[in-house]
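Hi W.,

Here's what went into the run:
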Amino acid sequence: MKQWILGLFPIVLLAGFVALFFIYGPLGVFMAAFPPVEELTIERVVLPEPDQIVLHVINGGPDPVTVAQITVDEAFWKYTTDPEDKTIPRLGRMRISIPYPWVEGDTHEVVILTSTGLTFSREIAVAIQSPRTDGTYFGTFALLGIYAGVIPVFLGLLWYPFLRELGSKWLSFFLSLTIGLLAFLAVDMLDEAFETAEAVPSAFQGIALVGIGVLGAVLILFYLSDLKLGSSDQTGAEGRHWTALMIASGIGLHNLGEGLAIGASYALGEIALGTFLVVGFMLHNITEGLAIVTPIAKDHPSMSRLVTLGLIAGVPTVLGTWIGGFSYSAIWATLFLAIGVGAILQVIYQLLVLFTRKGETVFTNAYNVSGFFLGLGIMYGTGLLVV
Amino acid sequence: MKNKKLSRRKILGGAVGVTALAGGRGLLGAPVLSTDDPDLEAHDARVMSTTGEVDLSQFDPSKFLYEFDYGQVSELPDGQTLREWDIVAVDKEIEIAPGVYFPAWTYNGQVPGPTLRCTEGDRLRVRFSNAGSHPHTIHFHGFHPANMDGVFEVVKPGDEFVYEFEAEPFGLHLYHCHSVPLKRHIHKGLYGTFIVDPPEKRPEAREMVMVMNGFDTNFDGDNEVYGANSVAFHYHRHPITVKLQELVRIYLVNALEFDLLNSLHIHGNFFEVYRTGTRLTPDDFTDTIMLCQGERHILELKFRHPGTFMFHAHQSEFAELGWMGFFEVEL
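Here's what came out:
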């Protein structure tokens, strides 16, 4: 008990000093001289129906911000807010409804003018009615997800009979290829996580979220692996199954991220530019099934096990399209993407362990080296189709 | 790509302007309803406006419209009329659209400054004191000696200067600060109207002053808010009431910064234009008049039909950002 009090003592003192700083500190000098710092983020723009624009706004700055006026395409427009009080506290949110006759397929720009005259803007790149949360849209998004994520993963799993008959050298080749695929995915996803983090209101520290997500996922997966396998041989059948499960989970998180991207861009009207994108994702993702099944190719996994692995890897795409399409949030997207990166990094480590136990590394022979680079190459090549 | 988007937006902006104006014509004759009706539809002419109301106890453009400051009048020994004014430059936060506050520099605490009015040949004496935070001057348009020009005689905070000169020529003029940097000193609010009446006086009329201006609230060199007499959409929410067939005289001044041109278009009517007000014969008969920065004209018209008539800058962008209002013509 006494120890805990000793432990809390510095924190109590800190609270005291913070209070002193606010009451007697040098802040007064600055407060008089500078206007408040305002930072609003328009997190989401929804066009729920013709003649209606809805903004989801979040205050990520240090001070409360008062919304004064709204302009759309450089015209002041009437609006209503929810909540009615137009001052958004720090980290507070607001919904702004604007009865504006937007034009399908056109570009619009919405600007919030605050009480101090600062402006915060957001572009609607291609105006298109936002998906409603009804059966049709749930079905449409599910289909998009199934095409982009579930079908290619299962097609990839169909390489299992082929892999089963391969010799040891060629299996190593495909394991290296898997590592190449995953390494590419990890980098690609990290890039996307950083990109999404830029849209996160600064108070929520997007980059820190990426760090927490990546490191957290790696450490938790290590912990779970240890818990599951204990001191048993990690390269044994159980270890290989565990690796396959981890690969499936990591890919699942990656596909969740892809689903978010598909759903969000559809909601923003961008995917309307072509079904090309979904076809690209299909080619890109077929290799994911291969990655899952390679470590257990010699273990005669049961059909149900393969199906389970496929579902774990593929179904998150559907969840992602739903979340992305109906309630995209940069904060959650960043975190999901970062967790996915961590999961994939951990899986790469797991695969490397498999190699070392066999007395090989990725770079010990030409099979492995070429497999690794082919993996990178395939991902790069199919990646060309989704940009 | 960027250009493509821009041009798309431009086309769009134009289309919306036309839609809104069409809606406005539909209102002809109908009473102007409250623009704060929450159920306004997206194509109603009144939905394109600001939300809420400004605190009119601080500055009411409806009153400013008719406020002419003739100064303190006395007679000099030789019989000449002397008019004296006290003008103080003060920093003041003003409300330029509901809930939008602008850190202005003002003459006598208001933007535009007071409308100074005199008759050609009067002796004018303006005591200017600077209670603001930056050096300012008053530069009058009109004839005057070089040392009364308000360019080199910079008045530092706490200092004073007396401008004294004869009122000439008659016409509609402007006064504004001429301290550098010019753009900032003017767009922050240091300008006002200076009317010199002809000795023979103009015919009796309902006279009003409209100073077209704008505000760059985020200091990016571009106006966010436009209007006449400072408050965006003020006469949209509070139409100007005039009588059918009565002579209406508008003293129209362009004090806009950043944008090269401004204009006024009045719906359903034509007006006589007296360019700069320096002659008593009209120069033009039109329904749309264009003014460069610092340009000003006197307009005269009589409304032929009762009802609600819109007026606005014919730059749709300015109109949509606040420079729009209504005349309510009564029988």
